[in-house]
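Troubleshooting entry. The earlier prediction with zinc ion gave an output that would not parse, so I re-checked the input for stray whitespace and re-submitted. Clean input:
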Amino acid sequence: MSQNPSTTDSGHQPSNERVLVFDTSLRDGEQAPGFSMNRKQKLRLARELEALGVDIIEAGFPQASPDDFQAVAQIAGQVRDATVCGLSRCLPGDIETTARALEPARAGRIHLFLSTSPLHREHKLGMSTQQVLDTAGEAVRRARALCDDVEFSAEDAFRTEREFLAEVFSVALEAGAATLNAPDTVGYATPAEIAEWFAWLRSHVRDAERAVFSAHCHDDLGMGVANSLAAIGAGARQVECTINGIGERAGNAALEEIVMALRVRAPLYGVDTRIDARRLYPVSRLLAQITGQSLPRNKAVVGENAFAHESGIHQHGMLKHRGTYEIMHPEDVGFPSTRLVLGKHSGRHALRQRLVELGHDLDEEAMDRVFAGFKDLADRKSEIFDGDLEALVLGRDPENPGPWRIEHLHAASHLGSSASVSVKLLHEDGRQVSEAAIGDGPVDAVLRAVERATGENLPLADFHIRSVSEGGDAQGQAVIAVQHDGRAWRGHGYSTDIVEAAAMAALDVANAIARSRREPKPALPAKAANA
Ligand code: KIV
Ligand code: ZN
């Protein structure tokens, strides 16, 4: 294996050839249990993905629900520096709905998918090979009539007969698809196979030089990133991936790992992306905060330990030369390189500077809100760490207030017996409601009290709490998942007191449910509704 001293001494070597980064965090990622996002959260992530330099943002599956339709349409209306893509089955109704959702886009793409493997043909589609070919061709032609940019995916590509896969891709290309995506839908392939298949497809698909070949690798056997890189090595020029590797089952290939592998091993791969790597850490944190799913400390590139050197031998080596144990630097991926602790005497300027170092360049209005939260927190907590600041910036959704807010909370628990909680809530219409409840523990009692006060039913599906910073007075993030009216709802709360954090999370859910009732139901356009 060759050395790459430039990456440790003087940064990464730029490369001429480009691989397109297609992010599907908002579609394949969001459809995984525990990773659902509301529309505002999706928009927020989409803006960050745009700033990150993603080429194509897969914003959702418009036919899946009216809410998905609206999310794709809103993202299409706001994102300007990336292509916005919507997923579609090869059905006329899906294609029309997707095209409508993408209407506001500066650059839109319809992403068609159809299973090609014998297993899927027989058990999922009930189609012959000829029917699959005809359906693919017709769907691409229909989509091209509505959108200039069409991608075709052969679902379960790597368990498909190779000659048949080449034939399906040839038909899709002839019909007008510009991107041919070979998904390893079930994470079954190995890097050596993927490399061989891509090389073979590129020489057996008719007019292959007109197509962009794309890889979409799932991580069921832990090979998603390795497989994506193998595909790139064999000529794929689009890679489909997600932030933090979120996605169906074991997830998709992680964007940040692919991007950094291409940079750190630039001479090996000879291709680069448009990604601004210094935004990788902030966007990873944003997603973790939005979904309430924290990352393992040892997660490659963006985990808390990714750049920590604990052993004496490593620390000694690092002091002599960073390259001894560091193949990339924390600052390359936007990881805060120094540990700076703020406190109640820190001013707005110091706060702003640290936030910028953490990747958050806030406008004045957001800065006012965060500074007020910072001062409030500094009264309760002697040292404010980066995790606390991130919780202040990312943890609260300023556009989503109320209708309820907590005025007062009191909790008492006794060893071996139940806990009791009393809350006083204030509604935006001026109503004040006080309720008390007992429960098996303080969290149970909090939920019951919030249920009574707001009148919302909150059957608990999941609850967890984690520390977002350090020390005995650390802030905790409480995440509550509730099943209500057949829908999964998640709420978050931050506080130095875990019962208060749980109360805020419960109220976050109750508020979201109350707001959803008064929001007009997003309606599908008449044509799409009939699809
Ligand atoms: O994994 C898969 O096959 C997919 C397709 C819809 C592209 O996500
Ligand atoms: Zn997938």
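This one parsed fine. Residues 498-518 form the longest helix (21 residues).
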